Amino acid sequence: MKNKDKNYQPWEKSFDKIVTPLEEFIHEETTSGFFLMISAILAMFFANSFLSHHYEHILHTELAISITGMGELRYTLHHWINDGLMALFFLIVGLEIKREVIVGELSDPKAAMMPIVAAIGGMVVPALFFYSINFGTDAAAGWGIPMATDIAFAVGVLVLLGSRVPKTVLAFLVGLAIVDDLGAVMVIALFYTEQIFLNWLYLVIAALGLLIIINRMGIRKPLPYFIIGTVLWFAMLQSGIHATLAGVLVALTIPVKPKFDHMLFIDHMNEILASLKETRNKQTNNKSTCIIHDGESRALLQTLENGVHSVESPLQRLEHTMHMPVAFIVIPLFALANAGIPVDISSIGQTLTHPVALGVMVGLILGKLIGVAGVTWLAIKLGIGKLPEGMTTSHLVGVGLLAGIGFTMSIFISELGFANNPEYLLMAKTGVLFASMMTGICGYLWLRFTAK
Question: What is the pTM of this model?
């Protein structure tokens, strides 16, 4: 950069920072993991303190929305968070999946082979462990709980290790977690839907078809997608399919191609910048440096901003815009509403040996390690693929441990699988929290002392 000797204000130095989409994604996921951890700790405090009664009362407070001609939607606050706000989380999940498949770690079939193999192993083996422990009981329906990996927590732990872990390991974990999210979405759609109402399902199909049509028509503004997506969410809520999956369907229809060609954008922006510089030179006698006093410069800057938005991929821009509110509001609220588990120290041993809690813990701790590290190692020996450059078997074991952090999606699937069984739900959540804490600590220590 030129003019390094100038005295920049701290916020002006941000112009010198150029980050890749992967670096921005990792930063946002790390921040999300921090807020998620704080929210989980607060939820545990509320559930095990003198505030527990108020905590439960707030979560079960009913909120209603009246829709003209369609009646009234009346649900508890807990339900609105899990079925409403979490649709935005699944929107981000869908955008991340689409980006990774098109331009990310999963866009190259050869490079994507090992993360895909690791993710499949990391889903199948934990599910088998849980199912075998709870075989023959109604608790076996929770087999999908230990399949998930919480990307925010897992990436956050890797970032704490800094330069001890090469970037290829981070990219491998991101690719694995994205495929894992896709698997969790498919499991929720196929196996955790109890009853389907066809009339509403037809509306879901119609809304999805309309989203595809406006995509093919070249519409790049987010508002039409938001309006139709809201209709799609409402129809899925009434159809029996879990409403949050509407977020994934909307994400898959968001356009990838920008409105403007980037080379034409560069030429046009150069002309605007030249005009801006010329306008500024005319104002040399003006003592004020604030651009608010220069109408022509303001107009040029607005044109510049419009051009930047038009040359950006709508998918990239929406993911960037939505990631922060989801990380700072939606996910923390989900943790506050779902991680509040009452703990009885006197019976903790009995709780952790309950088949449901045991199945979740064995699945996330041992199943993920064997499924991710073991299956990947076997695939390498069979010549199916190889680890990314700089990644060793020791790194692979560490990734297998960190993949056992299942927090957000595992708790979400617990809510679906055991919605009508509070005892099993409590045991499942306890298992998720305990296993996620253990695998996070073990994964960090393993990589801290073995990885070079």
Answer: 0.82
